[in-house]
Amino acid sequence: LVSAFYALQDTMTPVKVSAAALLINVLLNFILMHPLKIAGLALATSISSTFNLAALYFLLRRRLGPLGGRELCLYGLNALIVAGAAGLSMWVMFYHLLKPFHLLLKLPVSGIISIAVIVVLGRALKVKEAGEILNWMLKRR
After folding, report:
1. Against a cut of 0.90, is the pTM above it?
2. Roughly what angle, to the nearest 10 degrees, separates helices 12-36 and 38-64?
C-alpha cells in the first residue's frame, strides 16, 4: 500500500499513518507489557500493524475508489484457513501421532505432511501461493 501512495507521488500520507501506528504501538506496549509480558509486546505490534494496513487501505480506497476489498478479504480468509490447517497438522503430527519417535524423524515427517496440507487445501481454496510451493519444490530437483 505504501508503494501505491508513492506511485501517486504522495509520500506524506504513509509517513503520517506510520507515525500514528508507531504511537499506538508504544502506548499498547506500555499497557499490555505487564499483564501479558512478551505476548503483550507481540499483540501491540500486531494491533498497530493492522491499524497501519487498515488506515492506508481506507485512505487509498477513498482516493482511488473500490480496490476489490471483498475479494481480498476472501483470499486472506482462505490463506488463513490454509495456514491454520497446516499449523494444526504440524502440531498434531509432532506432538501426538509421532510422539514416540525421535526428533530426527518427527520434524521432517511433520513438515512434509504440513506442506502437503498447504498444497492440497490451498489448491482447493484457490490460494495461488500453495501451488507455487509445489512448483518451487519440483523445480529444485
Report:
1. no
2. 150
In sequence order, the 6+-apart residues with CB closer than 8 A to the CB of 133 are 115, 118, 119, 122
In 26-88 the beta strands, taken as DSSP E runs, fall at none
Comparing CA positions, the residue from 128, 132, 86 lying closest to residue 111 is: 86
User: Which contacts qualify for 21-27: CB closer than 8 Å, 24 or more apart?
Assistant: 21/48, 21/49, 21/51, 21/52, 21/55, 22/48, 24/48, 24/51
Residue 105 to residues 87, 123, 141, Cα–Cα distance (Å): 18, 27, 22
Whole-angstrom distance, CA of residue 51 vs CA of residue 57: 10
CB atoms within 10 A of CB 28: 19
Percent pLDDT > 90 in the chain is 71
Can you tell me the distance from the alpha carbon of 97 to that of 109, in angstroms, rounded to the nearest whole number? Answer: 11
What distance in Å separates the CA atoms of residue 22 and residue 16, rounded to the nearest whole number?
Answer: 10
